Amino acid sequence: MSSVTTQRLKQAQDYGMNHLLPPLVVMIVLLLIWEWLTSSSGATLPSPSRVIEETWGLIIHPFYDNGGTDVGMGWQILASLERVAYGYTLAVIVGVALGVLVGQSTLAMRGLDPIFQVLRTVPPLAWLPLSLAGFQDSYPSAIFVIFITAIWPIIINTSVGVRNISEDYRNVARVLNLNGYEYFTKIMLPAAAPYIFSGLRIGVGLSWLAIVAAEMLIGGVGIGFFIWDAWNSSRISDIVLALIYVGIVGFILDRLVAYVGNKITRGTSAS
Description:
Elements: H1 3-37, H2 48-54, H3 56-60, H4 73-104, H5 106-119, H6 128-135, H7 138-163, H8 167-175, H9 180-218, H10 223-232, H11 236-265
Helix pairs in contact: 2-11, 4-5, 4-7, 4-9, 6-7, 7-9, 9-10, 9-11, 10-11
């Protein structure tokens, strides 16, 4: 075995011992505690073994389709992700634009920042009745709730990033006589990118939280409505499985945005 292969095996072993083994041990311990607490005959919540037994059909057939809302967990999650993609993309476009405006213009900051600070404290679901009244349709209403939930951290972090651009960078732009577009693409965006991606990470997490809650109220296919429907049918094991999927998908979304941020900012964005 070559020295290079030996070194790579050692690195893989060290990574497994330092990063994979600790959460694996904690997860096993928590599952054992959960199993012990819910194994009695009077337990109101299902044990892990019972969850697996009762949801085995959902686990091995994630993409079945019996029509209507009777579809597998894979379709439920994809429907929710589609709504998040639309709402989050709109929030990124509008949020970055408004963040740049507020960060670059003192007048805009004085006029808009107090409004943003008030609106961002409104709970996401409080917007749902207003959006239903405005759109008269549950689908765009859910997208609007995601948009209005995700946009505030994007605006705030982008504006902070723009305001914190080093004066040296601004002087270089003046010396090079950059026009507005060149300053935006070559100075502003690269300098503010770590702040922008911090806002994008917070925004994508809030989007996923909001869509699950909104779908409980608007109905249709989606992981939120699946959880609400399971509760109404007393399928507690289905709810547990759905919550596990919700957590995993939320984690993947967060790591995906963090990965893109690290690649674009060359490691200066928080991982």
